[in-house]
Amino acid sequence: MAKPIMAKATAVWLVDNTTISFKQIADFVGMHELEIQGIADGDVAAGVKGFDPVANNQLTQEEIDAAEADTMHRLKLKFNAAAVGEEKRRGPRYTPLSKRQDRPASIYWLVKFHPELTDGQISKLVGTTKPTIQAIRERTHWNIGNIQPVDPVALGLCKQSELDAAVQKAVAKKAAEGGVMSDDERRKLVSTEQSLGMEEAPRIPTAIEGLETFSLREDDEDEEDEIIDAESFFNLPGSADEDEQP
Predict the structure, then answer these.
(1) pTM for the structure as a whole
(2) InterPro entries in the record, alphabetically (predicted)?
């Protein structure tokens, strides 16, 4: 459900100018019922000036009257045709100032481990610009020597579900193009959910490691059939001639 702008100031106005219940106001502005009660008691939003939702085209007077007459009535935000589609985020993601220094490391990680992602996808994931991504791809970034790749999910720059969705989109695009992927590329295109559901690859027991390519040759089989005389080990070449000499 869409929420009004300046929610706390709108709640202040509704508390001061209507008899609508705290629960109804809380549901409308997206706050907790106890916060609305705190506004009425003067403990919350002290000094906040009320914001008239009727004058600002967010509520109609008829909607307020209906809510005052029926405590079960839920306030509905007034439809504004000009605001249709505004809830969709356009352009790069906003990154807080405290995390902006982490973006080069996350870009480097995405470029290194997911080269199939386009610059546009990376830009939306971590909120950066295409020139910065290109500079890191080409290793011409001014600080490239000090940048270490770090997972953007671990840095809090994007969600794992968002990264997986971008990877899945790259999988579909690669499949549509009909390109042949190497084993390394195929592993990179697998999402976290898929990789966690895969069975473990069979491993060779430690006791026989190094013997997996061992095989008997025909010469070895023939040698096993021969009977070796123990005395032949003592009849070294030339030993008989030495015994005959005086």
Answers:
(1) 0.41
(2) TrcR
